[in-house]
Amino acid sequence: MGPVAVALGIVLGISGAGAGGVTAAHAAPDAVPGAPPRTGAAPGPAAPRPVCTAEDPRAAELSGLVAEGPPGAGPVRYRAIVDGGGTGEVLTLDPVTCAVTEIRDTGVRVTDVEDLGATPDGTLWLADIGDNRGDRGTVRLVELPVSGPARAHDLVYPDGPRDAEAILLADDGTPLIVAKTTGAAGVYRPAGPLDGGATPVTLDRVGEVVLPYSATSGGPLGATGTRTVTGGAVGPPGADGGRVAALRTYTDAWVFPLRPPPDGRVSADALVEALRAAPLPVPLPDEAQGEAVALDGRGTLHSGSEARGLSPAGVRAVPGVATAATAAAAPVVAQPAEVPRTGSFPPWLPAVAGAGVLGVLLLAGIGAMVLHGRRRS
Prior knowledge:
Elements: H1 3-15, H2 22-25, E1 49-54, E2 62-68, E3 77-82, E4 89-93, E5 100-105, E6 115-118, E7 124-128, E8 139-144, E9 151-156, E10 164-169, E11 175-179, E12 184-190, E13 201-210, E14 231-234, E15 244-248, E16 252-257, H3 268-274, E17 280-283, E18 290-295, E19 301-305, E20 313-318, H4 321-327, H5 349-376
Parallel strand pairs: 9-13
Antiparallel strand pairs: 1-20, 2-3, 3-4, 4-5, 6-7, 7-8, 8-9, 10-11, 11-12, 12-13, 14-15, 15-16, 16-17, 18-19, 19-20
Helix pairs in contact: 1-5
């Protein structure tokens, strides 16, 4: 076999592997053609550090998290929901010990609350969007203001029931729901205003997110769990490093820089646009069942895991995520509105992977030629 044949054999072995996106998943987003040049290396995210362990059994199934605090500072409290089904309660957790300090009941009937978000005015949004059996005719969002009663908003998908565990909230309270799908995860937005009326509001499918496989360990589903979206968060105004949005899987967070208008308010359109670009990967290794994610005023990402087996629930933090994501911001790359029929890779992945494959091809070819020359000498 000649040098070129050796190199091609290596390349085909990589591209044909089921986890072909592993390397690209952790490649710098500016590897995408057209990214602006850098004057120096952008700082990457730090490793997760433990914050606290949730010893209270009421917080054992931690599924949604909000980090409340002033701009430019860390959280003064966590707001949290648990994945137990049927509970419309919001827990307040101490940000140092994870102790439950308060419980607020929304008084709203729910089925399977899976995520929690907040708008800049302090309103909390409970996402009753879980549907493991795929048989719910409607899903529900519960709007919980700082004071006063909660309001329920019922929604219906345009393309049939589906399971979901992640929401992203625009500053005006417009939600985006991201389906819990391995591969092309649909992104849904209400077609009209949420008024708490008796008639469910139809959701529009406004895009999709395709995450590659990751080599990060952890979670209950193995390689499949590295692409399964389990939570979402939007950074608060005034955060160090700028505003970002995050989607997480069982093993990683994927952070998307936001481009708000001059007034700094993040709209639903801005969120949809951000999800079309290449995100910054933030590994969250060895979480038993990671489903919660939050962003604070320092640009720190907070990751929460449910208890599973001998592993307790708890929270970890990754400092500097917003700064790293905005420094490595890639250009917007359009994603299709429909699920790809021939694959489920992000549109920016072939370009990133192609650069890596070309490098492997060149190195392998050179190595083979050197070896061939030595054998002849």
